[in-house]
Every structure is written in structure tokens, then in C-alpha cells.
Write a structure and sequence with these properties.
The chain has 205 residues and is of the alpha+beta class. It is built from 5 helices and 8 strands. Strands 1, 2, 3, 4, 5, 6, 7 and 8 form an 8-stranded mixed β-sheet that branches. β1 and β2 form a beta hairpin. α1 runs antiparallel to α2 and α2 packs across α3. The mean pLDDT is 92.
Length: 205
């Protein structure tokens, strides 16, 4: 669960963004702009992130504020799960990333698998739709929903890829150091639970 200060900052930012989207009166717009600055200041004070960068991040958001969507793929082979080493932090994650406009969740999962691991795959089952704030992930400036899809490999020979530095399959209980901003041990454990019992329904918050 996110700390209260982060919950408040996110809420203030969403109110400010929605206000700037719909408000016409210049005085109202000025108030929402000030509210946006307060949200950035709260987040900067408690997180150590630079205020100008946070404010710029908030100002780039347009339209009605809604949660962002992070799509992750669970690909199994011989009871092991496919993972990729992220170049950004040198740690491991399930293939995945932000959903792009114009793509369905299954298209995002298949594209991310190809881009990050070089494998071609197809999405076969929805495993979970989770609220990132309730799942023990590190703090993030925006509210995020996480969609996990089980995917089957269509090829056993991956193509070279520039996205990640390493690709490997890992058994349950022998996971590498995780990029916890992207995936947690509890989330991967849930993926293995579906592997062991395919009758499990999709989990959701």
C-alpha cells in the first residue's frame, strides 16, 4: 500500500489535471495549476525526486486523468517462466510495458514478448488485473493497473533484440533479482499458481 503522502499527491494531481482539462475560467485554471504544483512539491519532498522534473511530468499529462495500464506476459516452458533482464536497472522482469493506444492487451503482450525476448507468442488467457498501489510495488507517480496474460510460445528460436540485455527461463523458487517496479515475487507466484491449476479464475482487485 502506498504511503498517505503519495496517495494524496496522486489525488491532487488527478484533480488538477481534470480541472485543467475542463475549466474555462482563467482564475479556476490558475487555481488548478497551483494545485498541480503542490502535488509535485509533496511528491518531491518525500521521494527525493527533482521538483521541476515532476512538475514537467505532470504538465505533460492531458485530458481526463485515468490509471495507466501496464501489461505483463507470463510465458511458460517446461515449468519455467520467461524473464528478461532490463537494461535500465540490470534486474529481471516479465516481458511487458505500457499499453499503447490502438492496441488490445493481447497485442501489447505479444509485441512486448517479441521486442524484449525475441520470441513470437500468442496470448491465451487472462490471469489477473491488479491495482499496482495495492500490491507492494515501489512508489510511482501515477495510478497504474497491471494486466497479466498467459502466452504460449509459437517459436523456440528467439530473434536478436535490442530491448533487454539477457533472456532466460527460471523455475519457481529460483527467481533472479527482480526489477520490483515492474514485477514482484507475489505476482510471479500468482502466475505459477495458474500454471499448476489452469482452472483458477482470473484475479482482480
Amino acid at each position: 500500500m502506498n504511503p498517505k503522502w503519495l496517495q494524496w499527491a496522486k489525488l491532487l494531481q488527478s484533480i488538477a489535471q481534470n480541472g485543467l482539462t475542463f475549466a474555462q475560467d482563467p482564475y479556476d485554471r490558475d487555481r488548478y495549476t497551483q494545485l498541480q504544483k503542490i502535488a509535485a512539491e509533496i511528491m518531491s519532498t518525500h521521494s527525493g525526486a527533482e521538483f521541476p522534473q515532476l512538475l514537467d511530468l505532470f504538465e505533460q499529462e492531458r485530458g481526463y486523468a485515468t490509471p495507466k495500464v501496464d501489461v505483463r506476459a507470463a510465458v511458460f516452458r517446461h515449468n519455467e517462466i520467461l524473464m528478461v533482464r532490463e537494461r535500465e536497472d540490470g534486474r529481471w522482469s516479465l516481458p511487458g510495458g505500457w499499453a499503447d493506444v490502438g492496441e488490445s492487451p493481447s497485442q501489447v503482450a505479444v509485441r512486448e514478448i517479441m521486442e524484449e525476448s525475441g520470441y513470437s507468442a500468442r496470448a491465451v488467457k487472462l490471469l489477473a488485473v491488479l491495482d499496482r498501489d495495492q500490491r507492494g510495488n515501489p512508489a510511482a507517480p501515477f495510478h497504474v493497473y497491471k494486466v497479466f496474460l498467459q502466452c504460449d510460445l509459437l517459436s523456440e528460436n528467439p530473434k536478436p533484440n535490442p530491448e533487454c540485455s539477457e533472456v532466460a527461463f527460471f523455475p519457481e523458487g529460483k527467481l533472479p533479482e527482480l526489477s520490483s517496479s515492474r514485477v514482484t515475487e507475489a505476482e510471479i507466484a500468482r502466475m505459477f499458481a495458474h500454471l499448476h491449476d489452469p482452472s483458477l479464475p482470473a484475479a482482480f482487485d
